[in-house]
Amino acid sequence: MRGSLTGKFQDGVAKLIALVADESNLQALPVTTRQALGAVLNQLSALQQQIGELDRCIHTEHRASDFSRRLESVTGIGVIGATAIAATITDPRAFKSGRDLAAWIGLVPRQHSTGGKERLG
Question: Residue 17 to residues 5, 11, 20, 47, 121: CA-CA distances in angstroms?
Answer without folding.
Answer: 18, 10, 5, 16, 51
